[in-house]
Specification:
three-stranded antiparallel sheet, 5 strands, HP0268, HP0268 domain-containing protein
Length: 81
């Protein structure tokens, strides 16, 4: 599963991160906050949630709006071991 991290510039393309990299971050840090781009499907983020909750980890996801437009949002994900 590949997910897109939030873009740093409005005209930039989002960088991708795979599930193995996310798992290694969680194992290393024990608590990780990641920001995902709006181009990710909500279904993929729910699959990510199911994956980590099945492993017994806490998973919190929020939609964060950073401007007035409906397209100006990102997903904030907090994973704790």
């Amino acid at each position: 599963m590949d997910l897109k991290l939030v873009r740093m510039e409005l005209d930039a393309k989002p960088k991708k991160i795979d599930l193995a990299k996310i798992e290694s971050l969680v194992e290393k840090e024990k608590s990780v906050i990641l920001y995902f781009d709006r181009e990710n499907s909500h279904k993929d983020l729910l699959a990510l949630q199911d994956h980590f909750e099945a492993e017994g980890k806490s998973f919190y996801m929020n939609e964060v709006k950073y401007a007035l437009s409906d397209n100006d949002y990102m997903y904030q994900v907090h994973i704790m071991a």
